[in-house]
Amino acid sequence: MDSNKKYWKGLEELDQTTEFVELNKHEFAEPIPIEDVLTGGGLMGKTPRRDFLKALGFGVGAVSLAACQPVPVHKSMPYLIKPEEVTPGVANFYVSTYEGQAILVKTREGRPIKVEGNPNDLIGKGGLSARAQASVLDLYDITRLKNPVKNNGDYGWEQLDNFIKDELTAIKASGKNIRLITSTITSPSTLAVIADFITAFPTAKHINYDAVSYTGIIQGNQNSFGKAVLPHYNFDKADVIVSFGADFLGTWISPVEFIRQYVQNRNNKSLEAKKMSRHIHFETGMSVTGSNADARIPIKPSEEGPALISLYNAISGKTLPGDASLTNNKVATNAVALAARELVAAKGKALVVAGSNDVATQILVNAINSLLGSYGTTIDLDNPSHQFAGNDSEFTEFVAEMNRGEVGAVFFLDANPVYDYYKSKDVVSGLKKVRLSVSFSDHNDETANLCTAVAPNHHYLESWGDDNALEGYYTILQPTINPVYDTRQAEHSLLVWSDSATKDYYTYVRNNWDQKLLAIGGLTGQKGWETLLQTGFIKAAPTAPGTYSFTYTLDSVSQKILDHSKALVASSGSVEFALYQTVALRDGKRANNPWLQELPDPVSKVTWDNYANVSPSDMKKWGYEDGDVVKIDANGYSISIPVLSQPGQAQGTISLAVGYGRTISGPVGDNVGKNTFPLYSLRNGTLQTAGVATLTSTGDNSPLAQTQTHHSIEGRYSIIKEATFKEYIKDPAVRSGGEEDHKEYDLFWQKYEHPTYNWVMAIDLNACTGCGACVVACSAENNVPVVGKDEVRRRREMHWIRIDRYYSFDDNGDGGKTEEHEIANLDSYDNVRVVYQPMLCQHCDHAPCETVCPVLATVHSSEGLNHMAYNRCVGTRYCANNCPYKVRRFNWFNYWNDARFENYIQNDHTVLVLNPDVVTRFRGVMEKCSMCIQRIQAGKLKAKIEKRPLKDGDVKVACQQTCPANAIVMGDANDPNSEVSKALKSDRTYYVLEELGTQPGVGYQVKVRNITETEA
Amino acid sequence: MASHSESIIREPLITGDNITYAQITNDVLRPVENMPGRAWWIGFTIASLGASLWVFAVSWTFWYGIGEWGLNKTVGWAWDITGFVWWVGIGHAGTLISAILLLFRQNWRNSINRSAEAMTIFAVICAATYVVSHMGRPWLAYWPLPLPNQFGSIWVNFNSPLVWDVFAISTYFSVSLVFWYTGLLPDLASIRDRATGIRQKIYSVMSFGWTGSVKTWQRFETVCLILAGISTPLVLSVHTIVSMDFATSLEPGWHTTIFPPYFVAGAIFSGFAMVQTLLLVTRKVLGLENYITMFHIEAMNKIILLTGSIVGVAYLTEFFIAYYSGNEYERYTFLNRFIGPYWWAGCMMYGCNVLMTQLMWFKSVRRNIPISWVLSIVVNIGMWFERFVIIVVSLHRDFLPSSWAMFHPTWVDMSVFIGSIGLFFTMFLLFIRVLPSIAMGEVKLILKSTSEQAKKKLLAHGDLDPEQVKYYKESLVKFDSVEIADYQKV
Amino acid sequence: MSKTKYILGLFADPDEMMHGIDLLQKNSVPIYDVYTPMPIHGIERKLGIKDSRLGYAAFMFGCLGGTTIFSMAYYMLVHDWPMNIGGKPAFAIPDFVPITFEWTVLFTAFGMTLTFFYATHLFPGRTPRVMDLRATDDRFVIAIDAKGNTPHEDITKILKEAGAVEVKHNDRKYVSYE
Question: Model-level pTM greater than 0.90?
């Protein structure tokens, strides 16, 4: 019989007070905020503002200590008073904005350690670019300016303010011009601040200056439709895409957004719906976009204009002059005809884009698009993009003004013309004539170095602010950490200097939102503001598309275009060159970021350098080897730069990347590569990226640090499986069939169950565009060291996930040449096909690495993961030798504590970016992809605390989370309804090298190309 | 039985007139009991310089990390494991001579087994140094041993060929050492009984108080016989297991069932070459022509020829199987040995090991001391390249072309290897100074039966088949240590 | 009464020594021991020494070694801490063969050799019980305990007759190493 005696601890229990009952509901007496902080939870979470501000308060404490000079950061400090919602060991997520994209910032103990896309973000839907992933590292850059600077000497804010105010009043009196030079500003509040500033100083003018500008498009639309805007493109609505050198998956306008849209018509889902978009690409150098195209036609810069003209003629039936001048490129001529047919067939679902910054060209493109009825469908002029508003002619005029001595004061915000303006000499000489020049740069850069004063700006993770990248899409910036150095937000400085009523920018932003913006999102007052701080953005209803008829007369246009291309035709002994941006460095403003420098270029796989891309045939013809240094002369400027054999490069042309060759950026970025901005030229008021140059060999050779040096798959079709869309329609399982099953020998193998979870991954080769975001995300999440150019050159990069890129050549539609010796005998390398394959630890069930480890440092988990116990490893490297996928990485040196690697990521400040959930690895230890086991554990913990089973999607690995194309899916194979199980059930699924019997845990899906007929 | 003189047609194993037991002792102990000559000093200086280079290079590696070598993410093993396998292979000849030839009652082994065994031990030491120095964290080199530990029950992986290696190499080393030292006892006693003062004390301790009484000798021979019996499978197992490091892996070019016999043959091959290299010099420098005769040299050359040909057959088999398997990776790997960027390494391997050794078919080559010496070195160069090709050339281009890479050795790689050779010779030169480089007891054993003078007695005695006598005399012509003139009068 | 303790017959030739042994035994002179610089085959039968039993010891040690390591492997990988190593069964017998073999050999070699040293009283630093220094060089020595009733002269005569190059009458048993 059970006793009816009652035991109670404390009176509360005896008389069941409500709060006691409340408390007892929870596992912990004090509520664990984990619900509202882990993964997406922070959004729906109920973190009140006061708690959030407390977090800031804590951030002040911890980080100003951590960040400022002498305090050794490796000393852990206990909380004196624990902030309510900061649980040591549990991450807090805060919404913010990166370049107009709503993001989540992951903070640990008050330190931002990673940024992730906001799942509801309109642009990336949770996807982020490699640059966004790397941006968090800039926050801890030890070479940022730590205080204001005057005449290149340290200075105080107060003195600076006084000094500048005095100067401004003086200049105002003198009536001289004041200029604000900024790269495109999309923040409404910032623009408002600038407006106020201008009202305070009537002679002031705001000039948008983009190192890589889109003036051409904006002007083009102005001329064509009277709307000077950068339209918003909808690649997801396009069935046929024809691009003329617009690298929209890599660097053009808004790549993350475009990748997401583009892949929607090509990924598994769309294929299973028997639908796949068609993409024809004309370009000079091999870009990420070109490498993903179904048909890619190399054309010289001088052929782009004629090609567009003949395309227009083919579609419109009219004949603009100059159509003929393409005849010397048979392939292109046919391709244009073909493109025209397909575009017309897909009227209303077609899109033509051109990367050119030439107004005339863009007008012609508009003409073509309006013929195809793209406006209102694939192109949206009514809800335009604000991402780029730069105006070349205004800036050119400004440089002239300076040199005429009409400018009294100039402010540079996020602009570095001394480095990236094509005539930087003029800027330098002009600056000498300016009385007051102020830079807001947070680094000492080429421009800041020449300025009277530098008022260092916050990093965006330290800033309040807002953003409005797309019409009607307003996102909020909130600081996730107290300023690491003695910096001040540029807007704040402007407010101070213009004696604005509101002295601090936070209040200013608040007011601006309370008065104007909150209403748009249907929010009001304090409540609305708090909601905003949790959701991160508001969205206005889109304005209905108007109708646009193209009336502009084209003859003069086509004439301009023809003149332009004639000017580009290279005389014998010289070549046409085209400038492009790399996916990692873009315009080079953040060249000091080691994660970006070490991110291999998606196509060439080169790190830490820029180089002249030359077509293999030309390499043969001119007798160059990879890495031979050539002297390039153009526009009276000359650089010596190594060459690289790049299949797909149009013959007789070279491509050069901008954004390299910084001289004042910091220890990482200085003197990496050569500056090619001076090769720009101004034509019809816009900056042009193409030109004519002469090449001369210098005789020396500087090897490039490539992470992949063999480029063909040697006919090994169990690694890469490809099919055409036609074949796929006939048989969805085409080519995915593995080798016939071989006998299992029970004597040697034992079936191990995965009772709870079985973590596996599916990678869709058709979705992956090779952008490399996953690589940086992985490095950030797993503390992967940066090893520098020398080590990469020794083939020792440490990336846990890499993107293999293979070329195959197809001269006569015979399926493609994939073997070294065949390829060596080709004479044309124009018709190259590219395939990307993300490669990471396959977590084989029969892992070859496990059997051979003498000390059991790597064994298999009951959840199907291949574990690596770093502190048990003695470093025999046998596992790496025995890994058929070569995904294991060895710590050749003590990368985290070795003077030779200090320039990269292991100084006192940058180590603050480390993920505390992942240990850094010591010298002599093997490491590899762990399938983000720390995230898996966190997910399980959360589920456990919530007393519920783990849901599919609770755990997202870093590479999957950031992938704008959703090419990577990871999850539990035991759950038949999980996304990954479904993905792996697809007919296209195959396993790399499955005939070896390693039973990999990562399934790939056959690459499908939409090749209708043999193009050209 | 010792006193029975063997048939005349057998060639003598000990040449020279009036070789008495005392004479043997004197000849063998001359280097031990006198100050070294100039030749020795020169050799020793060079060798010890090499050894110090080794010390420097290895310390350098330990200090800065294995990254100082030319390895990379694709080629995880190169000169280190090449050197390891090379040295272990060289070691094998010693045990083979002392064990297998003993079992086969090859009396000619008696005058070379001592130095051959010494060579084994030093070679295995060199190999062992690589095992440690190639580790990423050499200070944890004891972790592959199945020790109870403070980390809880963390044991080793008995499925891993590397653990098998640990067992094989350690066993092989210690057993060879025991075998060798036991054999040394009687000779140490001889030195002891001839020495005086401190040397006598030292050798007295080292000789364990050996007296040479009947019972001791009888048990001694039993022990040697059994040790020989177990060393024979041991020596075969060691290189079998070394070969399993590769054979049990997945790597095309490694994943080959033929490896065990192929490696063992290769080991004996290179081992005998090394013995040849050393003894041809030693016998001149120490004046031991009468004990290490042309017969020995030719016998060893024949073995080199035999094992070399076995290795050749193994190569052919590999190629055939690569073709016959239809496995594209396997095929590519073997093609790559000739058409790949490392074609020259392949040529060295096949050229030195197979083509050059075929010269041994000619008597004139087998019996020509300079040529045999050169060939013996060529063989070891070839065998080094064999391991280099198997390890590096297989690794540098395996399954995923994206990871294909080249290997470029650094000065550290080279210094460690050259240094290990220096280390080896330092130890060997010290050995011939302080220990008898020929097993006196065993040579004395065969003096009465198979020495040249014994044969002379027979001839003098007469009543032999003239055919046989003629044959015997002809067989003597090749000896560089025999006065043919003596036989004219008989 | 002479102080002679041992009579040594030093032969230069093993065959003559064997002959000497025969003669002595014919004259029923007890032989204390024989010291030779090299093994003499067949002598043990003459002196009636039983075959060595080291072989059995060796076998035992071998078995011990094999069992030891195999059970170690079993305990460590199967009993104490079984885990999934590359999908192979924990008790992967084929993989245990190499180590088992190696330790069988190891134990055999060491066990037997140590037994040999123990049985024949060999250990580092043991004072050598040598009756004549040349016994380890070029002399084949028959040692006869002088405390027999056979007159010493007869023994000397027999030895000389057998071809001994020298006969010693030693007052102390062993050569002193001082």
Answer: no
Q: Is B283:B238 a contact under the CB 8 Å cutoff? A: no
The secondary structure of residue A583, as a DSSP letter, is T
Chain C: list its partners (3+ Cβ pairs within 8 Å).
A, B
Q: What mean pLDDT do residues A236-257 have? A: 92
Per-residue pLDDT of B251-299, as tens digits, reads 999 998 899 999 999 998 998 898 889 888 888 887 778 888 888 888 8
User: Are residues A775 and B52 in contact, defined by beta-carbon separation less than 8 angstroms?
Assistant: no
The H or E element spanning position C45 is helix C43-46
Parallel/antiparallel/unpaired status of strands A153-154 and A149-150: antiparallel
pLDDT at residue number A23: 53
Judged by a CB distance cut-off of 8 A, whether residue B78 touches chain A is: no
Side chain identity, residue A493: S
State how far residue A1008 is from chain B, nearest Cα, in angstroms.
21
Inter-chain CB proximity B223 and C113 less than 8 Å: yes
Of the partner residues A875, A880, A893, the one whose CB lies closest to the CB of residue B137: A875
**CA pair distance A72, B103, nearest whole angstrom:** 70
The values of phi and psi at residue B218, to 5°, are -65, -50
Flag whether pLDDT at B162 surpasses 70: yes
Give CA separation, A924 vs A891, A916, B75, in Å: 5, 21, 15
DSSP structure class, residue A910: G
* Percent of all residues in chain C with a pLDDT value above 90, rounded to a whole number: 24
Residue in chain B closest to A998 (alpha carbons) equals B250
Going by their DSSP bridges, the two strands A278-283 and A295-298 should be labelled as: parallel
Per the CB < 8 Å rule, is C99 touching B163?
A: yes
Averaged pLDDT of chain A? 87
Chains with ≥3 Cβ pairs under 8 A against A?
Answer: B, C
On the 0-12 / 13-18 / 19+ scale of CB atoms within 10 A, B424 is: buried
CB-based contact, A752 to chain C, within 8 Å: yes
- Please indicate if any CB of chain C lies within 8 Å of the CB of A509: no
How many other CB atoms are there within 10 angstroms of residue B173's CB atom? 20
- Closest by Cβ to A794, choosing from B72, B157, B399: B72
Residue A19: the pLDDT is 60
Distance from CA of C92 to the nearest CA of B (A): 8
A350's enclosing H/E stretch is: strand A350-354
End-to-end Cα distance, chain C: 28
Instruction: Point out which residues pair with A632 in neighbouring strands.
Output: A639, A695
Residue A533 C-beta-side C-alpha neighbours within 13 Å: 20
Cβ–Cβ gap C47/B214 under 8 Å: yes
CB A71 within 8 A of CB A46: no
